[in-house]
Design brief:
Helices cover 45% and strands 13% of the residues. By secondary structure, the protein is α/β, with parallel strands linked by helices. Helix 4 packs across helix 11. The mean pLDDT is 95.
């Protein structure tokens, strides 16, 4: 027997979905280790205090963000996106799936986040700002009570030019790290995998960021970035696979979303549950958001990750219990997907462990389904997303199919993780692909 066959045989009883996963078929997996939140919260290495610390740091940097990025003035330097209801998309999804999809459907428009145009703007920018604050405080340049708009000055940029920040990325995290790092004056380097889009590389270079390209996958780019950074004591490596700072930066989205729901008069309680559908690559972004959601809403929120059929990293890690010690290639998959932000074959072990008692489940989608959903949400609502960001639109139908019923008073939120910065010509190609695939 081959190593792949041996591995499949090892898990087919405890994780029967692995057979279909290995054939790149779409699957829906319910997490058997999900616990009531009152039990689950004691198993986390993160706390409400650490989440609040991240929110406070972003508030301190709001004057700097307003100064350096004038497009954020309307939001007071807070990097946040709109939450919109999409009734036309719900109607089109009902027609597409041939099922009544009860409840309220909303989209969290992280595709429109300022500065970096994706969900990575929260976590990535947060980690860069924490590094900059640490350096500035250690060198006596600021205190936490100061006006942080001073970071947007030639003197601070000259100081930061002695330091560097490095990341390995398929694209969107690289944009957030590179753009913010370069704005502060840090020497920013992004190691990008073969899946990364050319326009993302071009945009980074136009901002003065060094981009190093590889013909191999995300894991290799991360490995090389880590190696380079380790050789320079004045370099900080942003580790997408195990960064607690990234995770906490993502988590602040939950309290902000809570305020948006309150402002729109939308209740979240036992009678009005909340469902969140999060596209997933290595797991940091959706993991951090899910942690924050559970912190705020407890058992009234249900979080699902969505992954490509060819790169089901977190699904494999959590389903087998092997976390970061198993990859898509181990079961014969190629890890290739048009959803470049999700083109990750091996999950973050930190995220898998954090999500074991918190996550409701994971489902996978074929690439062509992503293109169809991308076209559907544009035709219905005029919302432009990239393929990976369309993944959550299948959530409401997939949960219905798995559970057999949906709460009529539930609210379903699709996290549209990126897309507004995609060049129009490239986006038109995505859209046409979706139209033709129907």
């Amino acid at each position: 027997m081959s190593p792949v066959s041996d591995l499949l045989d090892q898990y087919k009883t405890t994780f029967p979905e692995i057979t279909d996963i290995a054939q790149a078929k779409e699957v829906f997996w319910k997490n058997p280790k999900l616990l009531p939140y009152e039990q689950a919260k004691h198993l986390s290495e993160f706390t409400e205090v650490s989440e609040q610390g991240a929110a406070n740091r972003l508030a301190r940097f709001a004057p700097y963000i307003m100064s350096a990025f004038p497009e954020t003035k309307a939001s007071g330097g807070i990097i946040e996106s709109e939450l919109v209801e999409v009734p036309n998309a719900l109607a089109k999804l009902e027609a597409y799936y041939g099922k009544a999809l009860v409840g309220r459907l909303m989209v969290k428009l992280d595709c429109n986040l300022p500065i970096a145009g994706s969900v990575k703007a929260r976590g990535g920018i947060y980690e860069v700002l924490k590094y900059a604050e640490t350096l500035a405080i250690e060198n006596g340049l600021v205190s936490k009570g100061d006006d942080y708009s001073v970071f947007d000055s030639d003197g601070f940029r000259a100081f930061f030019s002695d330091y560097s920040i490095v990341v390995g990325s398929t694209g969107n995290l690289g944009l957030s790290i590179g753009i913010m790092g370069a704005s502060l004056g840090l020497k920013a380097t992004v190691h990008m995998s073969a899946d990364a889009r050319q326009w993302k590389k071009d945009l980074l270079r136009s901002k003065g960021v060094t981009v190093i390209e590889y013909e191999s996958d995300y894991s290799h780019a991360v490995e090389q970035g880590r190696l380079e950074s380790s050789q320079d004591p004045k370099s900080h490596f942003v580790d997408d696979e195990s960064s607690k700072d990234l995770f906490l930066g993502y988590s602040v989205a939950a309290r902000r979303l809570q305020q948006q729901l309150i402002a729109q008069g939308i209740a979240v309680d036992a009678e009005h549950p909340l469902y969140i559908y999060l596209p997933c690559g290595v797991g940091g972004g959706p993991g951090g958001i899910s942690f924050g959601m559970k912190l705020v809403f407890g058992d009234h929120v249900h979080c699902y990750f969505v992954e490509p059929t060819h790169a089901p990293a977190v699904l494999l890690g959590m389903g087998t219990g092997q976390h970061e010690n198993i990859s898509a290639q181990d079961i014969g998959l190629d890890g290739l997907t048009a959803a470049d932000g999700l083109a990750v074959s091996r999950a973050s072990g930190m995220v898998c462990r954090e999500m074991e008692p918190l996550l409701d489940g994971v489902f996978t989608l074929d690439d062509q389904e992503l293109f169809k959903l991308l076209a559907l949400v544009f035709d219905a609502e005029g919302i432009k997303v990239e393929p990976s960001a369309a993944a959550g639109l299948a959530g409401i139908a997939r949960v219905l199919q798995a559970d057999g019923a949906l709460e009529s008073k539930a609210t379903h939120i699709v996290w549209a993780t990126g897309g507004s910065m995609v060049p129009d010509e490239e986006w038109q190609g995505y859209y046409q692909n979706g139209v033709e695939a129907r």
